[in-house]
């Protein structure tokens, strides 16, 4: 697209005709991850100033949707899946299978994936971490988090998420 190489131009900077033409010329891939796992990762990477996970979650809830970090904002507010028709939605936890399919669709050999790309151990680790960290939260925080991420939970199949209970 003619303005493709503009440095860090946001999609909102284009008019509707340009956006439609631009999006129509790309294969659109959206990578999604359980919002609770995103919170855990953000906390473990030290992106919050809190000493406990519960305090960090309270910071997230207090910041709200509009003032929050991209690291924990709901995906629906960042990626607009209701407005942009993505060609592929790749779920964390199924990366090996889904990326293999995506590579084949793009005409590339699926065998070009690195052999160490395994999700099963990562999924087990996140399940254990989720149990530990979810138990630190108050009933009110759990309810507020479920409400905060309600659109992500409705838009994507995070059936095993602690927040969807």
TrEMBL record:
InterPro entries: Carb_sulfotrans_8-10, Sulfotransferase. It is an enzyme of class 2 (transferase). This is Carbohydrate sulfotransferase. It comes from Poecile atricapillus. Belongs to the sulfotransferase 2 family. It holds the Pfam family Sulfotransfer_2. GO terms for cellular component: Golgi membrane. It is found in: Golgi apparatus membrane. It is a single-pass type II membrane protein. The keyword Phosphoprotein does not apply. One of its GO terms (molecular function) is sulfotransferase activity. GO terms for biological process: carbohydrate biosynthetic process; dermatan sulfate proteoglycan metabolic process. Keywords: Carbohydrate metabolism, Glycoprotein, Golgi apparatus, Membrane, Signal-anchor, Transferase, Transmembrane, Transmembrane helix. Its EC number is 2.8.2.-.
């Amino acid at each position: 697209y003619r303005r493709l190489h503009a440095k860090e131009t946001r999609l909102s900077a284009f008019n509707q005709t340009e956006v439609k033409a631009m999006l129509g010329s790309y294969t659109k891939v959206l990578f999604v991850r359980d919002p609770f796992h995103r919170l855990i990762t953000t906390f473990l990477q030290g992106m919050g100033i809190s000493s406990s996970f519960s305090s960090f979650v309270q910071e997230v809830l207090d910041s709200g949707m509009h003032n929050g970090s991209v690291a924990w904002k709901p995906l629906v507010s960042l990626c607009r899946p209701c407005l942009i028709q993505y060609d592929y939605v790749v779920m964390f936890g199924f990366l090996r299978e889904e990326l293999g399919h995506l590579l084949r669709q793009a005409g590339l050999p699926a065998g070009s994936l690195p052999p160490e790309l395994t999700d099963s151990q990562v999924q087990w680790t996140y399940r254990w971490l989720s149990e530990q960290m979810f138990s630190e939260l108050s009933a009110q925080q759990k309810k507020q988090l479920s409400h905060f991420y309600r659109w992500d939970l409705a838009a994507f199949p995070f059936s095993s998420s602690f927040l969807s209970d």
